[in-house]
Description:
The complex is a heterodimer of chains A (172) and B (388). Chain A contains 2 helices and 10 strands; from the N terminus they run ααββββββββββ. By secondary structure, chain A is mainly β. Chain A has one domain. In chain B, a hairpin with a 1-residue loop joins strand 5 and strand 6 (204-205). In chain B, helix 4 crosses helix 15. Chains A and B meet through helix 2, strand 6, strand 7 and strand 8 of A and strand 1, helix 1, helix 5, helix 6 and strand 5 of B.
Amino acid sequence: xxxxxxxxxxxxxxxxxxxxxxxxxxxxxxxxxxxxxxxxxxxxxxxxxxxxxxxxxxxxxxxxxxxxxxxxxxxxxxxxxxxxxxxxxxxxxxxxxxxxxxxxxxxxxxxxxxxxxxxxxxxxxxxxxxxxxxxxxxxxxxxxxxxxxxxxxxxxxxxxxxxxxxxxxxxx
Amino acid sequence: xxxxxxxxxxxxxxxxxxxxxxxxxxxxxxxxxxxxxxxxxxxxxxxxxxxxxxxxxxxxxxxxxxxxxxxxxxxxxxxxxxxxxxxxxxxxxxxxxxxxxxxxxxxxxxxxxxxxxxxxxxxxxxxxxxxxxxxxxxxxxxxxxxxxxxxxxxxxxxxxxxxxxxxxxxxxxxxxxxxxxxxxxxxxxxxxxxxxxxxxxxxxxxxxxxxxxxxxxxxxxxxxxxxxxxxxxxxxxxxxxxxxxxxxxxxxxxxxxxxxxxxxxxxxxxxxxxxxxxxxxxxxxxxxxxxxxxxxxxxxxxxxxxxxxxxxxxxxxxxxxxxxxxxxxxxxxxxxxxxxxxxxxxxxxxxxxxxxxxxxxxxxxxxxxxxxxxxxxxxxxxxxxxxx
Lengths: 172, 388
């Protein structure tokens, strides 16, 4: 703001006045729904979920094995060469402990979330997922090994949530 | 010179930033536009093109928001475009305004940034969840704050940076905002206040975050010949840059924003800047969260990787320091109406380079300033370099 300006437009409203209906307001809730085709690459991925596998895709030119899989390599800008399962284990790249739900409301039992670099994919190929079977979140460490915990096969529906969460595990 | 014409900023305006404003988005756009025109000494009829920056339609529930806002931005019967690149919009709108004039196609361009987040009631958080991939992210219940928390934690881990060091940014910016007459959250707080505030999504706490806000900001751009007729004190846009990375945000190392570096390099090259920390006198760096100011200082090469916290602790980034960062108070202090916040940063650099910033004026005689914004899924950077 310039010191030459002495009038500052904008009339503040109190949240309380809005809630109590003291301010002229109009409410509307659109009824909009969506159905997305999973697409060429991600159809492979969600079908893999049903079989308890994480599917990646490979570009032979840059040699990247990518998760989530793409139909085309965005770096080489050419079709990928194959789809193949990677492992269902990985390493915690970063993590967080969420006390906030999607609508910004607060939750008592925190959700443990992480970016997990997937074994068998190229370095740094991570996916977002949840962590579980951890009694105290302070036990979570960067670089910790984790393994997918799958829903029973009859309950899987072809979704990223067919993996319930990743849990800590010891490599043998 | 890049472009056919050199481009100047000759006027700027903004509304108050608040959680709830009575004015509609169109009315807010009008107020900011009118102020910018008055400051430039122009009438609407002098404006030959208009660029509107405004973020997701879902905030307003008006799914042709650019068109809806057009009247408020003075675009009636004029060449008009609306640009949108998430949080990067407010600075990118100025980049877009630059090419309107630099191309020689238009002598003047009015650039407006607007956001009214309060319309998404009671909270815009749900609207934010629709930015995520619908197949592999949304079924997990992802919210916006998760990705900031994941990025902040990675940044802290890679460089060994503490919460205390990061909290200093929030303390500085909220204090700076006490001197901004339009600010929403100017305050004197301490590092302890930040560390004792509610844990939302570790390591993010309540006072690490900017608020949701309503507001608008605007700039008038003009070609060199027009600008010199109107003012003895133009501020030149000498560098513009913008860059996007892919939406596969879990496939890159979040500790460093490479795409911000790419945007900065584009702007620095154009402005002939070889040593950014030495040549930039004042910067408005995108700070929706306190750690983002540090993260972006590094991406902008104003600090070496992992060193921005040290500069902050040494007082270098204070308003009276050697490299003042966010003298306005930034998003943490002035408020964060998404696109308007980025444009506000460009306004602040204009006022700083003109020596009009009053109590917020940085020391010395700043000649070169930078504004930057960031957005989308940890993937977008936009930069403007200005000189007086």
